[in-house]
Hints:
Layout: H1 2-12, H2 25-55, H3 62-91, H4 96-130, H5 132-138, H6 141-158, E1 166-173, E2 176-183, H7 191-222, H8 240-285, H9 295-319, H10 321-336, E3 352-353, E4 364-368, E5 374-378
Antiparallel strand pairs: 1-2, 3-4, 4-5
Helix pairs in contact: 2-3, 2-9, 2-10, 3-4, 3-6, 3-9, 4-5, 4-6, 4-7, 4-8, 7-8, 8-9, 9-10
Amino acid sequence: MENNKTNLQDAAQVGNLTEMPLNPLEEQVITILLTMLICVVGIAGNIMVVLVVLRTKHMVTPTNCYLVSLAAADLIVLLAAGLPNISYAVAFWIYGYTGCLCITYLQYLGINVSSCSITAFTIERYIAICHSIKAQFICTVSRAKRIITGVWVFTSLYCIMWFFLVNTDETVYANGVVVTCGYRVSRSLYMPIYFLDFTLFYVIPLSVATVLYGFIARILFMSPLPSHLNDRDGGGSVHQGRSNSTNKANKGAVSARKQIIKMLVVVVVLFALLWMPYRTLVVVNSFIDPPYHNSWFLLFCRMCIYTNSAVNPIIYNLMSQKFRVAFKKLCKCNRRRNEKPAECKVLRYSSVMKDSSHESNEPVTEQEDVNGQATRRFIGTDDDASTFSIT
């Protein structure tokens, strides 16, 4: 801080100061409108994801636990990166030294937890489908919660370094002083940190996802159905009716698996595409001098990042019937909470495959009547049918 004061005093003695640089008006307007739109949609959507999973018993599955972690991380990104960008587009940095430290820390925390959550649910889906026997004991809600806690603790500790790497800087112009939140040392010294982040939270997650989803696709889309899904009691057996009913339920479970995998693949692909411009820019700027700082391209990179944090709830709504129904019910319950609170406690659903998170070795289906009472029946030995409750 003493150095900053000295710089201000030296600059004040210079008689030929330049004018303060201002962003073009059209850039300011576009930045504010796009950021507001994306942040409002994203914040509302991610809050709804958290609420529907926490408030709906049958939605509490291992996969959905990771999606809640992803939603919480995306909320942090939108609140710590998106909203401050609105004021920064007009008035430069207004949050001071403490705000610079805390906002930078939260930005990287949200970004890195988001990446780790994607990796976690990818591995969980791989185990659930490709190693279904082990999945009954490994892919549980309690284990998912422990993994998520570990991810947040590790990432929180990892991001502490940013408290020591950023600082505010003041530049005096003829018509005012501009405060920016930047780095303490030259950009070249940050190259190891940039590439460590790039490797840990972009390259490795995408590499893992590519390999594991390849194995999953081979099991679900290329291999024939397991023998226990075929009609083993065909012909004139007295058990033919029961066998046909069981086979239909099991084939429905396979279809459900395919749908949830498609949804998660879309999440991963969008993560890769929307983060690619910023990650590429960081890598390129690590090798060129001066760095490429076109304001419109920087705006494009920021909008891609915010969109990635806002789009996931829309994907769930479009590709998951369970989330779509839960979102609608949540909205109806909020509107009628004061009139008929009891109705919000009743959730009708049918053919919900019991999740392995219930610590059971036998998959079952559940159907609730209007009083919320469940009736259960065993459907066979389809080991992973229970873990796809969000389709």
